[in-house]
Amino acid sequence: MPYEGGGVMSQIAPLTPPPLRGTSPRYAQGGTAPIRRLRSSQPLIIQVDMTPDFDAVIVGAGFAGMYMLHRLRGKGFSARVLEAGKGVGGTWYWNRYPGARCDVESVQYSYQFSRELEQEWEWSERYATQPELLRYANHVCDRFDLRRDIRFETRVAKATFDETNECWIVETDKGERLTARFVITAMGCLSSPNTPKIPGLADFEGPTYHTGNWPHEGVDFTGKTVGVIGTGSSAIQSIPIMARQARHLTVFQRTANYTVPAHNQPLDPAYVRDVKAHYPEMRRRAKTKPAGIDFVINPASAIETPEEERRRRYEERWTYGGLGFMASFSDLLLNDDSNKTAADFVRAKIHEVVKDPKLAEVLTPRNIIGCKRLCVDSGYWETFNRPNVTLVDIRDEPIERITAHGLRAKGEDYTFDCLVLATGFDAMTGALLKVDIRGREGVALRERWNEGPKTYLGMTVVGFPNLFMITGPGSPSVLTNMLPSIELHVDWIADCLVALRERGVKVIEPVEKAQEEWVGQVGDFANITLRSTCSSWYVGANIPGKPRVFMPYIGGLPAYLERCEAVVQGGYEGFALK
Ligand code: FAD
Ligand code: NAP
After folding, report:
1. Ligand having the closest approach to the CA of 380
2. What pLDDT does 7 receive?
3. Which of 399, 421, 443 is the last residue of a domain?
4. Residue 379 belongs to what domain range?
5. Who has the most CB within 10 Å: 3, 7, 51, 76?
6. What is the total count of domains within the chain?
7. Which residues of the chain have pLDDT under 50?
8. Ligand 1 mutation pick, 190, 289, 537, max ligand atoms within 8 A of CB
9. CA–centroid distance, residue 255 to ligand 2 (Å)
10. How many CB atoms within 10 Å of residue 249?
11. Contacts of 272 by beta carbon, 8 Å cutoff, 6+ apart
C-alpha cells in the first residue's frame, strides 16, 4: 500500500466521520475558531456541559506541533497551537549556534506525510544546516497554511483538567485561558536549556551565550577570546567554527566525548533525483530499523569477527561518516567487549589526528562508546592542533566559580571576553514539567513524576485524561530519527481522536495496570543495553536532583510500532474510554 501520509496507524483506523460536537463550523470551513479570553485573575468559570473553545490545544510549533495541527485540521478538528517562540521550527528556531546542523542525513531527517512536499523540497547538503532546516520548517508552515492557527510568543504556564466539563483549561503567560477537549504537548525532548548552577555565573561581565538559546542576530567572535563549557554535540559542532573566528578559544571539558566524522558535502543532484524516485522504499526500510534510519546494520558480533575484518568494517564506516558507525556490528551496545573494539578504534583515530600525545590522551574518552549520544563532527579533533585553542580538563575538579572576566578552575584563573554554555538540556521531561500540568483531583504531573516519568506508550499518563505527549518519555523518540517518530505519534493521536469521535467517547485515560506494564518494559529493555550505564542526559544525570531513570524506550522503532498498532487493534487496549 503506498504511503499516503497516515502511516501504519491510519491504515488501522481510517475514518472520515462528521465534525465533532464543539468543532467550530467556521473552522470546518477554513476559518479560525475564536479564543475565549479570560483574565487569569478571574476565578475559573465552570460551566456544566460547556463546549470547549477547541477540540485540541497543541503546545509547541516545532516539527511535532506543526504536523499535529495539519493532521487534526485534515480530520475536521479545531485546534490552536501555542508557541513560546516568535516563529516555527522549535529546535531549529532556538539552536542557532555556529555549525548547528542535523546529524541524521537531511533526506531522512524530513517529513514523509506529503509526497508533494518530498518532491518539491531540495536539500542542499548531506546534513542540512540550521538555517536550511529553519527555512524548511517555515516552508512547511506556509505550504500547509498553518500559521493562522499558531499563536506565537505565547508560553503555556498551566494546564488543568476540569473534571466537571471533561476538558482542559490552558493558561498562558499572557494571562489568557483557553479550553480544549484535548491537550497535546509538542514541547520537544531537547528544548529546555540547562544552565548549570556554577557559582558566580551572574558576575561575568562579558556576554554569556547558551547554544540552545542563541541570539538570532548571530555572534561574531572575530578578535575575541572565548571560553566554552561542554563537549557534547552542540559544542563539538560549534567549537571548530568558533576556533576559526576567535582570537583564542578555551574549552572546558568535564567528560571527553566520542565523535565520528560527518563527511558532510553538497548533495549531488543525481543522488537527490534517485532519492526522490525512491522515497517510499527508503522510508519503509527505515521503519524496519531500530533507530528509524535507513542504514545497513551488520548483523555480525564485533567480538566474534576476526580482527582484520573488524578493522576493515570500522574503517569503511568511518570513511563513509555519520551515526551508521554504530551499526558496524549488531552488538556494540549489548556487549562490553564488542563495544571496546569500537571505542578503541575511535581512540586510536584521536591519537592519529591530535599531534600532541598528551592532549590526545585528555581528549580520549574512556567510557562506553554510544552510551552518551554519539556526536558527529566536521573537524573537531583537528581543531585542537590549532595554536589558538586550549583544552582544560575539569573531570576531577568542577569549575570553582565564574568570575567577572572568566572562570576559576583547578586553582587557576582563565580569562575570556565571551562565555559559551554548551551545557545541554533538561531532556525529555524538562519542558513538560516547567508547565504546571494538573490532572484529576488537581494532582500535579511534577508530583506524579517525582521518582521519574511514568507513561503508557510514552504518550499518555494515568490521572491525566485527554492529555497526549508527542515523543514523551517512554517512547523511542531521542533514540531514533525524530521525524518519523514524531509522525508516528501524530498519526496515532489523530487516528485515536477520530476513533473517539466515532464512538462518542469524550474521555480517554490509560489504566494503571497498562502503564505499570509499559514502564516495566521500558526499564527491562534499558537494563539489557549498555546505554543505561553512564551519566548521560538519557538518565537525567546532567541535572542535579533529577531522578535517575532511563527515559526513552530502547526496544527499537519496529517493536514500538507493532505495540502501538496492537493497542489500536485491541480497541485501545490499556485505556479506559468514557
Ligand atoms: P522542538 O523542536 O523542541 O519544539 C518544541 C517547541 O515547543 C519549541 O518551539 C518551544 O519553544 C515550544 N515550547 C516548549 N514549551 C512550551 C510552552 N510551555 N509553551 C509554549 N511553547 C513551548 N533529532 C534527530 O532526529 N536528528 C538530528 O539530527 C537532530 N539534531 C538536533 C540538533 C540539535 C541542536 C538539537 C537540540 C536537537 C536535535 N535533534 C535531532 C532532536 C530535535 O529536537 C528533534 O529532531 C525535533 O526537532 C524535535 O521537534 P519537536 O517539535 O518535537 O520539538
Ligand atoms: P549534552 O550532550 O548534554 O552536552 C553538554 C555538555 O556540557 C557535556 O559535555 C557536559 O559534560 C557539559 N556540562 C554540563 N554541565 C556542566 C558543568 N556544570 N560543568 C562542566 N561541564 C558541564 O548537550 P548538547 O551538546 O547540547 O546535546 C544534547 C543533545 O542534543 C545531543 O545529545 C543530541 O541528541 C542533540 N544534538 C544534536 C546535534 C546534532 O549533531 N545534530 C547537535 C546538538 C545537539 P558531561 O558530559 O560531563 O555531563
Report:
1. 2
2. 26
3. 421
4. 201-421
5. 7
6. 2
7. 1-47
8. 190
9. 10
10. 27
11. 107, 122, 123
